[in-house]
Design a protein that fits this description.
It contains 1 helix and 5 strands. With about 100 residues, the protein is an alpha+beta fold.
């Protein structure tokens, strides 16, 4: 009898942990938790960076590259293209 009780308790514990993980994942992917979506898709200035003027960032000062809605889009040649959506924003390591 003790063996069956241990098995039932283990199943309940695993199910409870699974449920908690599921709730956390749902919160993250439905943007209910603001810490996971802060500054995503914001302007480059809001994120503390500067827009790239060639499609490349100065690696020594601004090594982090993200997309921002207020930056111009540059193709792989470094040519500016209008109406392409989000452009490259260069961010410093420390903000």
């Amino acid at each position: 009898m003790k063996k069956k009780a241990d098995l039932t308790i283990n199943i309940l514990i695993v199910a409870a942990i699974g449920l908690v993980v599921l709730v956390v994942l749902l919160a993250i992917f439905t943007d209910k938790v603001k810490i996971f979506s802060s500054n995503v898709g914001g302007t480059c200035d809001e994120q503390g960076g500067k827009c790239s003027t060639s499609g490349k960032c100065d690696e020594s000062s601004y090594p982090i590259k993200v997309l921002a809605k207020d930056c111009a889009y540059y193709n792989y040649n470094g040519t500016k293209e209008e109406g392409k959506g989000f452009g490259q924003c260069c961010l410093p390591l420390e903000r």
